[in-house]
């Protein structure tokens, strides 16, 4: 569990950068891309020893898994959901997410966030396939004693989860990390859905992207997040 500011950047920074930012930046957590066929950046730093050192210095870690993407998504993705493969892909990717996190030293009880990019929310067949995939992913994660979370866009992928939660659907994520670029570093007033959803420290808000910041003499380009949700269990 972590409450505060978190950042994410495509490639996990070197340990020296993390040490330079620790205590000099406003951030207390970093999101890292642990796996998935649609993960966009190489991760030469992201090893079990890096996780141990970063966590040992006081950082909290947010594992993010870029699994199969919506069938109606514009652009190419190496792995896409279809109506026929949604359940099987979700099960396989959920198992893989746990394996990847475990290999990095993130223990059972860790929240693993499934990264689902934007899609046309008006395409009901597409939304249904995404939900079926997500539910299957979540079942696989929970069966291995990890916890499923979800990252998505406020107007599409995250909205689909909120709609399903309102309808009382089963096998939904335990925490919702929503991308809404309003510059507001909170998880309450900016929350775009019913206030009854994902309460009790289960929300995160990506509120700005591509911000160039320098702390401890080291510069990174990061996305900014207000965090009030579970993270990885390490140590």
From TrEMBL:
Gene3D superfamilies in the cross-refs: Glycosidases
Superkingdom of the source species: Bacteria
Coiled coil, from the record: none
Domain (Rv2525c-like glycoside hydrolase-like) ranges: 19-227
Pfam families per record: Rv2525c_GlyHyd-like
InterPro entries per the UniProt record, alphabetical: GH, Rv2525c-like_Glyco_Hydro-like
Protein name from the UniProt record: Rv2525c-like glycoside hydrolase-like domain-containing protein
């Amino acid at each position: 569990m972590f409450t505060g500011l978190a950042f994410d950047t495509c490639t996990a920074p070197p340990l020296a950068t993390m040490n330079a930012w620790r205590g000099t930046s406003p951030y207390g957590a970093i999101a890292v891309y642990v796996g998935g066929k649609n993960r966009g950046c190489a991760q030469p730093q992201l090893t079990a020893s890096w996780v141990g050192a970063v966590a040992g210095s006081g950082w909290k870690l947010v594992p993010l898994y870029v699994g199969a993407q919506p069938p109606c998504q514009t652009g190419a993705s190496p792995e896409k959901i279809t109506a026929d493969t949604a359940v099987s892909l979700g099960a396989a990717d959920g198992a893989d997410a746990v394996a990847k996190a475990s290999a990095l030293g993130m223990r059972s009880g860790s929240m693993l966030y499934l990264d689902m990019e934007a899609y046309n929310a008006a395409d009901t067949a597409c939304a249904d396939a995404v939900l079926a995939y997500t539910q299957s992913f979540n079942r696989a994660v929970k069966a291995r004693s990890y916890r499923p979370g979800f990252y998505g866009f406020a107007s599409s992928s995250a909205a689909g989860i909120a709609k399903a939660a309102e309808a009382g659907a089963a096998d939904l994520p335990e925490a919702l990390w929503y991308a809404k670029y309003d510059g507001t570093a909170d998880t309450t007033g900016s929350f775009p859905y019913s206030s009854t959803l994902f309460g009790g420290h289960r929300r995160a808000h990506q509120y700005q992207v591509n911000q160039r910041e320098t702390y401890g003499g080291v510069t990174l380009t990061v996305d900014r997040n207000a965090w009030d949700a579970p993270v990885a269990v390490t140590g």
